[in-house]
Amino acid sequence: MQEKQLTTGAVSPSGAAAVSPSAHADTTAKWFLISAIGYFFIVGIIAITIAAKFVWPELLGTVAPLSYGRLRPLHVNGMLFGWLLAADMGLTFYLVPRLCGVRIWSEKLGIATAALWNVIILGAVVSLLAGWNQGLEYAELPLALDIAVVAAWIMFGFNIFATIGTRRYAQMYVSLWYIMGTILWTAFVYLTGNFAVLAATGVNQANLNWMYVHNAVGLIFTPVGLALAYYFIPKSGNIPLFSHKLSMIGFWSLAFVYVWTGAHHMLHGPISQWLQTIAIVFSVMLLIPVWTVVYNFFATMKGQWQQLRENVPLKFLMSGVVFYLLTCFQGPMHSLRSVNAIVSKTDWIPGHAHMAVLGAFSFFAVAGCYYAIPRMFNRTLYSDALANWSYWLLMIGGLGFFVTLWLGGVWQGWQWNNPAIPFIDTVVALKPVWLVRFVSGILMFAGIVAFLYNVLATVTGAAGVEKPRAAAA
Amino acid sequence: MNDYTYPSIFFSYFLFFLFLAGGLFFFFRSLRHGYFGPAAEDVKYRMLEDDEEAPRAR
After folding, report:
1. In CATH, what number is assigned to the domain containing residue A401?
2. How many CB atoms neighbour CB A10 within 10 A?
3. How many distinct structural domains can be found in chain A?
4. Which of A32, A254, B42, B47 could, after both became Cys, cross-link A9 (CB 3.0–4.6 A)?
């Protein structure tokens, strides 16, 4: 039966000749992934520095470039665009040609995109440390760098669409749908959040900004992260996806629902009640696409859960799915007015955001790296044991971070709702929470170091790394 | 100082409806192309064959 389906799926709309998997040069993917993992490490240092500043506010004195106000946007932008989006783009360059059965449309254009992306990230480091900052959440980069991001995205999108346009198979796997959605939605979300927002003022500007912030996660990192999960879960476990039809229902419901939810960041704020209500209703409706995705992955794993003992990429992927479920349950719940009145603006929010960006989408990207990098470099992974260490360090550190901030956030929210408590007392009360946050950060950083070392040892062919195909030849 | 709030909001609405129209167009196209039809599941088997085997780590 499987044989029949494989052959009926192989329709060539373009007449392009199929390429064997080993024919992919993957140069662009390698550039993106190696630099992304490097930024993961560097920005990880920034992350634990600012976590330490919560506990020891005098740390690093009054040196302006090392102040919290400069380091925090560098951490956010570095993790979002230097690590995660770059890793997602690298893995996209890996999986799109394979799913299409053709080579990437232009490797040269891909390398130019990767080079420009690195220029943007290095420019962001300089500008944000120097204090050149637009002062808008997630849109801190100066205008010149915003324009460079748009140029890089056009180059990336053109290359990917051109590759898909020459695909060998008419029917597209769901990951390709999510990737195309990501490219188009990012164009809309980024242009609105970084350009249109500059021309708005007051409440309207805030509303546009939060639409951007929420959709940066919901329409950029979510669809590309799910594209990776839909590709790497079946590939890592060698298990067919439970239902492709269900995955398509998830894709279209996400496309319809997500864009409306941004205003839930401004509940109880100076925006219309109808807009707040729309944001709440659509936030709750998010449970539909989320459940289609999570049910599909759980059903795919039915009878295969024992693979999690040995299979590190699958371990990262399925943990990411659980975090995705949790984060997308939290989101609709704290969009309700009554819950929002307690947790909004508290430490709950970074706990929630880190579970989405680190717990779900970074776990998918790390799994993709562990799966794809040995194949791209035609080597064995340096160490499964070290990969396992990286998993447990990121998992335990991550859980410590998320749970502590949720509890601390609720605690903080209750205190803020009591006008008898002076604000400074609510700050002092959170010191133990921030200490656990710092220690959890150290654990997560150790996980990043283990991941970086494992990848570099694999890529450079350190002792013990085998080259089986070369040996066979 | 000029206030460009309304033009910027209209610009955002324009982009939104542009993508809504594109989304609806491609959704109905995907229906016509059989993504919800009897052969919808073929692709999930094919994707398992598109890659080389990974060497096992130590």
Report:
1. 1.20.210.10
2. 16
3. 1
4. B42
